[in-house]
Every structure is written in structure tokens, then in C-alpha cells.
Amino acid sequence: MKAESATSADPACPGALPGAALDGPVSHAVSRVARLHRITAGRLLKGLGLYPGQEFLMMHLWDTGAVRQAELIKAMDLDPSTVTKMLQRLEQAGHVRRRPDPDDRRAVLVEATEESCALHAEVRGAWSGLEEHTLAGLEPAERAELARLLAKVEENLCHEAGERPAP
User: Fold this and answer.
1) pTM exceeding 0.90
2) Nearest 5 degrees, angle CA 33-CA 34-CA 38?
3) What gap in Å lies between CA 7 and CA 27, rounded to an integer?
């Protein structure tokens, strides 16, 4: 079965669109951009001793303070074993602390350590650099329009997934 080709036959060509994606060029582009963005973020985070995704966990803790591990798993929308592994690594690095919840000894509270304050500044700097790299060549009005459009896309996807969009 030979598929129609939207662009050149070269699979390495950034404009190449697989035949199965011909009816979803924006979704294909969003997937490619998200993948490349995650790769780039991963390279920046590696220099901070973090794996991709750990920065989101830390951002949540920095913003909310101590939370139950079960609530953190729900907020991260990840498999409990994945969050547990992330917490083990972050705890070994001195960035988080786990302790029994004084209100419910069966529950575990997770909190960012004071030592993670330096990491907070480094993550913020990495995300600032990632932002500049990602949006290089875009004018301020284009950046604002892209953010506005992506917020609408996120709202659509959150509605479909039954979640609230981030503020």
C-alpha cells in the first residue's frame, strides 16, 4: 500500500509528513516539537543531576510545600512506582525528604529540602534557557500569540482528558 506524501520522501526532512498523519499535520507537529523539547530539556537537566520529569515533581513541591506521597502521585499523573523511583533518587541527592504524616501515620509526607533551594534557582535558569532556545527567532508578539494558542490547545486536551488546564 503506497501512501500519499505531503512533502519529500526523505524521512529526515523536518517537513516530511508520514502518510498516516496526512489528516493530522498539527498533531504530528505538536508530537515532534514535544519530543524535541523534552530531549533538549533533558540535556539541560542532566547538567543539574536531574532526569526529565523530576523537575516537575520538584516544581510541585517548591510551590505547594509538604504533600502526601499519594497526593503527589495523583498530581503528577504517573504510575506510583515511577514516582517512588523519582523520590528515591531525589532523596539520595538531598533534594527531598520523606517522613510520616503526623495526622495519619500510614501516610508519607514529601517535602523539598532547604538544600534544594540552589536547585530551584538552577532549574529556573535551565527553563529560562530552554525558553530562549525554543523561541529563538520569534518576535515578542509571536511568542505571546504562540502561548495564547498553546493555552487553547491545552484547554482542549485537558477537557478531553477530564483535567483542569494549568494556570
Assistant:
1) no
2) 115
3) 16
